[in-house]
Amino acid sequence: MASTLTDRLSRLVKTMRGQSRISETNVQDMLREVRMALLEADVALPVVRDFIARVKDKALGQEVVASLTPGQVLVSIVHKELAATMGEGVADLNLATQPPAVILMSGLQGSGKTTTTAKLAKHLIEKRKKKVLTVSADVYRPAAIEQLKTVTKQAGAEWFPSTPDQKPRDIALAALDHARRHYFDVLLVDTAGRLAIDEALMAEIKDLHAAINPVETLFVVDAMQGQDAINTARAFKEALPLTGVVLTKTDGDSRGGAALSVRQVAGAPIKFAGVSEKIDGLEVFDAERHAGRVLGMGDIVALVEEVQKGVDMEAAQKLAEKVKSGASFDLNDFLSQISQMKKMGGLSSLMDKLPTELAAKAGQADMDKAERDVRRMEGIINSMTQLERRKPELIKASRKRRIAAGAGVQVQDVNRLLNQFEQMQTMMKKMKGGGLMKMMKRMGG
Ligand code: GDP
User: Fold this and answer.
1) Nearest residue by C-alpha to atom 13 in ligand 1
2) Which compartments does it reside in (predicted)?
């Protein structure tokens, strides 16, 4: 989905650039694109329907700030709803129980269960200062027991031995007993997974669940599995009272649709995301960030919010009207544009929020210089009298020297500013519209 949804949305943002309001028609157009993109990305149909309904609800009647296009506002709504669909805030593990807190790992073979068990052990040791024990109840694959032993050691946790001739239930109970007697805070129970759902497997894990009564029952699912992930989630949800999902292999997840459906289908929040094969490749799942990644549009939401709070709407409006009415654009207007830019967090912070390809073109060194230039320009205009600001043509050599001295710059800096102002003035005449607004639209669109 990362590429398709992004492509569709950015195309849409472009086509909507000329429109000033969010209307029934342009919302419909956008929702059609989003719907297609989500379905292509393997998001389950009921999830898509629900999602579309919520976006529509939020979008209609939304005020569009003059410096943003309806397309940009819609993208930010889509982003927020994407995040809301995948969960709100950050959900860490619940360990609020008499220790040891038992965590049961469920999921298909190859989903990344064993790796995730070790990653979680490391997370609990390092981030939550817990004493952690792991055990494997996978009696079908001796190699799986050995694998857990190896990765547990890497995680710095302790491993409880088990053998293929034991019953999974007995293994888990023995480990629990050991954990109690040796004051472990957490017991992680890795389980057997088959390549596909089967009855015997489900019965076994249900029995295991009943025996050890875990405080967390995590469903581990490979993000690259698409629609299959949804079917698997449904089957596990029917068998077990899931408390959380771990979405693995998000580093290779090209479409991202799984994350959208899985939360709803599993009926539990996504708590962690696997981001690499390495033992430290686990992140607490952050829905906002994942939504941003799915959109792949840089932090466009932050940009939108910044513009909304930063721009003095009244001033921007006045300026736009002034230019439209053909009144002259003077240095006061120029100053007002410069200070609006600054209010929006400065050029480089705006650049940070743009999609990476765009930001890369700009380059940090250029940005730092641009910010210094903006501050200098402001200083120069502030050293001018009101008359000079309204009639820049009055500014001849002696006035230039006075202004330069007042602003602590060289006369050539004053000249450069006057040149830039002249260029801007010419551009404004050509545009006959809100200069800053158009500029912003071009940046975002
Ligand atoms: P299990 O059969 O469910 O226990 O799965 P494993 O833990 O053995 O993992 C299966 C494969 O997926 C292994 O090669 C892991 O290294 C790999 N893997 C697990 N999690 C991740 C992840 O988040 N990112 C990547 N790239 N690989 C992962």
Assistant:
1) 112
2) Cytoplasm
